[in-house]
Amino acid sequence: MKHNPWLGAAVGAAGGLLGAGMMVMFQHVVGGTEDPKDRRPQRRANATPNHTDGTFSDEPATIQAAEMVSRQVFDHEPTDLQKQVGGSALHYGFGAAMGALYGAAAEMEPRAAAAAGLPFGAAVWLVADEIGVPLAGLAGKPTDYPLSRHAAALASHLVFGLTVEGLRRALLGRAYAAE
Fold first, then answer.
1. Rounded-to-integer distance, Cα 118 and Cα 71, Å
2. To the nearest 10°, the Cα dihedral for 101, 103, 109, 112?
3. Low-confidence residues of the chain, pLDDT below 50?
4. Distance between CA atoms of residues 46 and 103, nearest Å
5. Looking at the whole model, is its pTM more than 0.85?
């Protein structure tokens, strides 16, 4: 069977878009927001890509990054709506880019698709959320947040990895990890 990294990248990008959306849905189902009076999680009725795990009310990295791009690249002070749209665009764009890299990698090395995409999702969480976002100054140090927040973010990224791999297998009609 001939493997095509360009096709893998295209299918992976589609999976990344779907996976980014599934993360939002997952956060909507299991997430909540902090009630400042009693600090018990409350269900969130309107999850968006700009909510990380819904357990804290700090401004999401996607919105901060969109605001930074608007100011530094376009010399424009964004409105709240523009920040929300920009944050969503960054969330889905990053998901598509990570999915494309994964899809191409799985075409070149089928073992990259092992364990239904869970290692991929965990790697994106570790590198992007735990290391990249704090290094970019878009969040505090990982030790500034409780374990529950890290666990919720990891769970969302595992949903992402499963979705990317599931769509990749469905569209290509084969499961490389079994080869």
1. 36
2. 90
3. 33-47, 50, 52-57, 177-179
4. 31
5. no
Domain extent listing, the chain? 5-55+91-178
For the chain, the DSSP string reads ----HHHHHHHHHHHHHHHHHHHHHHHHHH-EEE-TTT--EEE-S---TT-SSSS--SPPHHHHHHHHHHHHTT-----HHHHHHHHHHHHHHHHHHHHHHHHHHHHH-GGGGGGGGHHHHHHHIIIIIIIIHHHTTSS--GGGS-HHHHHHHHHHHHHHHHHHHHHHHHHHT--GGG-
Structure token pair of residue 57? 């009310």
